[in-house]
Amino acid sequence: SMFNSTLTLKERKAIYAHEFGHINHRDSIFHSVTKCLYWTTTAFTYLAFSFPIALLIHFVSSMSYFSISQIDELLADQFSARHANPLALSSGFDKLDKLGKEYVAKTPSPSFSVSRMRSAVKSAIGMSTHPTDELRKAYLAEYANEKRIAKCKAC
Hints:
Blueprint (H helix, E strand, L loop, with lengths): L1 H5 L2 H16 L2 H22 L2 H33 L2 H21 L7 H11 L8 H22 L1
């Protein structure tokens, strides 16, 4: 598969460790609970409050949901960094991002897409389930440095 042929063994191990981090932290259960709370809050606010107040509460609950999702991703990165090479995870993410962009570029789609525009706006204001690449790389570099220092102390 393209996944296996593009990534090195260390990168695959790091990415699998990241996904196991989600399992270890039971992210799917918490994701379901937070999504349920998000929609319950949204429905309740539109029924109970005036539109401007409901819109504000909806925005705050959206930002809370996305913040929790981003923290889950960073915790999975941390789990992976403990069990695999953090720099391999970073380079693996870069390769997968490049693959995704190549796929999107090859996939025929209209030049203007409401979905693309909505995604761009949401990303620009931080409404994303994943942290920025820059933030993740900074944390992964820090984890790699911590592992190197711990390894040197053990010598």
